[in-house]
Amino acid sequence: MDDLKQKYLSQIADAGDESALEDIRLAAVGKKGEVALKMRELGKMTPEERQVAGPALNALKDEINSALAAKKAALGDAALDERLRSEWLDVTLPTRHQRQGSIHPVSQVTEELTAIFAEMGFSVAEGPRIDTDWYNFDALNIPGHHPARAEMDTFYMARGEGDDRAPHVLRTHTSPVQIRTMEAEGAPLRIICPGGVYRADYDQTHTPMFHQVEGLAIDKDLSMANLKWVLEEFFSAFFEIDGIKTRFRASHFPFTEPSAEVDIQCSWVDGQLRIGEGDGWMEVLGSGMVHPKVLQAGGIDPNEWQGFAFGMGIDRIAMLKYGIPDLRAFFDADLRWLRHYGFASLDQPNLHGGLSR
Ligand code: PHE
């Protein structure tokens, strides 16, 4: 028994890993191990012999088992020490540089103006960019022969061979959303509609796709005075200049009567544009009182309701506010431009936090 004990304790001490240890366990105290074989021999012994050998064998078995457990724990500790030594991390290293995306000025300005008009009770309406000529023209009192159709440089969708219905158009303005919203919601109404519009035009201030925001308010007793107040409130908040002045110039749109083009006060100092000061004027939008025929086309009784509408270029006011010189660059997807003029994604515009970056 002493020999067995010596043999296994020294094997256990020498075991290099857990699988060697398991082999030793099976050979020593497993079901068919040497200690079990010895236990079987107990049956052939005299009772006196058995009284000595039985407890001794059990003690041997216990001793080997606890040597195995101790060695197993020691091997585990050694493995952990080795991992701690070889796997390490320098938490003082600088982080890897990660490029962040940015919010496009058109998206930012759309958020800004939505926040400002929301404060005045306007909700956001939307319509399709591909629309029928009825919504884009006829319903807005622009009949087929009207020169405004030609002036708009409209993109027409192609029809299939033999399909002679009037073609759909890429909307030339956001005004068709006036009709769609009147149809869907009736009066009274207070909505803005920001979105992309299309005209075949291309130079420093024109691109074939650009963005407008339509405004429409319909109620029992709205007038041009309400329109002027809403616009001046908007421009003061948007350009962050108190009491900005607007100038209304008589104009003509088929869908408003009377109509006005609206300028905001500005000046040029050393070739730099300053909004809200001086004695110059900058045209920023078209507007007027909604034409009775337009109300009718939208299913609203012009004898009961009236309202005002306006349409403004979003890209244009973005250029004015953030000093961006060329409209075409808005849509070039040039990363350097986007990083320079873009906004941080956490820079959420709202009236209370201030609208500037
Ligand atoms: N739809 C006009 C345009 O695109 C702008 C406008 C909208 C004018 C609403 C008056 C009223 O030029």
From TrEMBL:
One of its GO terms (molecular function) is magnesium ion binding. GO terms for cellular component: cytoplasm. Binds 2 magnesium ions per tetramer. It is an enzyme of class 6 (ligase). One of its GO terms (biological process) is phenylalanyl-tRNA aminoacylation. Its main location: cytoplasm. Residues 107-332 form the Aminoacyl-transfer RNA synthetases class-II family profile domain. It comes from the Bacteria. It catalyses: tRNA(Phe) + L-phenylalanine + ATP = L-phenylalanyl-tRNA(Phe) + AMP + diphosphate + H(+). Keywords: Aminoacyl-tRNA synthetase, ATP-binding, Cytoplasm, Ligase, Magnesium, Metal-binding, Nucleotide-binding, Protein biosynthesis. It is found in: Cytoplasm. Tetramer of two alpha and two beta subunits. Belongs to the class-II aminoacyl-tRNA synthetase family. Phe-tRNA synthetase alpha subunit type 1 subfamily. This is Phenylalanine--tRNA ligase alpha subunit.
